[in-house]
Design brief:
The chain has helices spanning about 15-20, 35-80, 90-100, 105-120, 125-135, 135-165; strands at about 5, 30. The chain is mainly α. It has a two-stranded antiparallel ribbon with strand order 1-2. The radius of gyration is 16 Å and the shape is globular.
């Protein structure tokens, strides 16, 4: 059953930091707010890439990262948490980066989703180490950016192995 998480008492959803941090409320959905945030990023990614291709999507990912450092910092202070689970702008920025790097095909986008979520959830080295080391808005954002890079590299490796085997 899907349920909603309450915002911190000092923030309303209309506050720009709350809107950005929760990606228009997608991060308030339970369970699995990171997955909801990732899924909510896809329609925007499709529109951005349709208008300007992968380069514009990569630029949007960078802009979302910068906005996410600001918004997640404010949100996490209000929530009194180092990395509030309802903050999903980190997933949005990261999945846009993965989508910009992979083929603009259904297989590429499905692979992007599953590989990114795998690295974001499992947090193998060095992702987990980076997550523990950095705090504040940058700390919220940086581990997902690193998970995005790992997802891209994993996709490339899988693609190379596939080419060799076929």
């Amino acid at each position: 059953m899907i349920r909603l998480t309450a915002l911190p008492p000092s923030l309303r959803l209309s506050h720009p930091a709350a809107l950005v941090a929760t990606w228009f409320g997608a991060g308030l959905l339970r369970p699995a707010p990171g997955t909801w945030g990732t899924l909510a990023a896809f329609p925007f990614a499709f529109a951005i890439s349709w208008v300007g291709g992968p380069w514009l999507l990569a630029l949007a990912a960078i802009a979302a990262f910068a906005a996410g450092v600001w918004a997640s910092g404010i949100y996490c202070i209000a929530a009194r948490k180092d990395d509030a689970p309802e903050v999903v702008i980190d997933e949005v920025s990261a999945i846009w980066l993965v989508l910009a790097a992979l083929p603009m095909t259904p297989a590429g986008w499905i692979g992007a989703f599953f590989l990114f979520r795998l690295f974001d959830i499992v947090k193998p080295w060095p992702i987990g180490t980076v997550e523990r080391r950095f705090k504040g808005g940058l700390g919220v954002m940086i581990d997902d950016a690193l998970a995005a890079v790992c997802a891209i590299l994993a996709y490339i490796l899988i693609d190379l192995v596939w080419l060799v085997l076929t």
